[in-house]
What we know:
- Helices cover 74% and strands 3% of the residues.
- By secondary structure, the chain is mainly α.
- The chain has a single domain, classed as Orthogonal Bundle (ABC transporter involved in vitamin B12 uptake, BtuC), CATH 1.10.3470.
- A two-stranded antiparallel ribbon has the order 1-2.
- A hairpin with a 2-residue loop joins strand 1 (132-135) and strand 2.
- Helix 2 packs parallel to helix 4, helix 9 packs across helix 10 and helix 9 packs parallel to helix 11 (268-280).
- The chain crosses the membrane at residues 12-34, 40-60, 67-86, 98-117, 138-162, 191-211, 223-253, 259-280.
- InterPro entries: ABC_transp_permease, BCAA_transport_permease.
- GO terms for molecular function: transmembrane transporter activity.
- It comes from Methylobacterium currus.
- Keywords: Amino-acid transport, Cell membrane, Membrane, Transmembrane, Transmembrane helix, Transport.
Amino acid sequence: MYAPQILIEAALNGLMTGAVYALIALGLTLVYGVLHIINFAHGALLTVAMFAVWGAFALFHLDPYWAMLGIVPLMFGLGYGLQRFVIGPASHGSDNNVLLVTLGLSIVLENALLALFRSDTRALDSDAALQVVELGPLLLSTPRLIGFAASLAVTGLLWLVLNRTDTGRAIRAVAREKLGARLVGIEVDHVYAVTFGLGCACLAVAACLLMPTYYVNPRSGAAFVLVAFTIVVLGGMGSIAGALVGGLIIGVVESFSGLLLGDSLGQIGIFLIFILVLLVRPTGLFGARA
């Protein structure tokens, strides 16, 4: 039996990790909610953002949190350009084509990263991962605490953009009725590109929050996107609130699974939940609102 302090630390670490998972899932669920497709390039784009953070640190000694100011707009622009000039034109309006294009894009990006950086694993040469905050008898990782706060802030900001701005209203209109939105003068292709750009911007923030404690190689994003997909299914496809709540739940489950079964088997609990949700509630926790 574990001491209460260990169980509380495991729960808090799970919540902090889950908040960053939720941020990755937000981009995925946002794209699904508007474009109604699964973006198979999501993991590869996360890897691109993580290499950008690593490159900024290696070349310019730029702190990952400060690097966010440059990498987020760059990733937004990359996402906007990919949707506007590659995915949209290549799909010819077919959802099946979109899936194939994003799958092809994922393969191209991963192999381009493999050609540029080889398969070596890279991490930031920094002692930031060792910094902790004392909370009574508890020791909490400082990078994870920053990641938790930043993830909640970004989720709140995204909610404000979607619910309090003209751009957000246009995105919600296109998500609900594409033809009706087009008839009232909304440029649907531009809204699609903005949505894809926002998804990539969420990945950029997540990459800046992950890199102080994680490593990167050309396949790093695949592991995170599997967890993100589970979160989207758990929370409900297309639901922002579902992505946040699902991310926190998955983070806690992973933490306790790792504590009980060991780090190498920590993700077993995640995929058991994935199967359970599909069996019991296929629409997810917030599926009715999605």
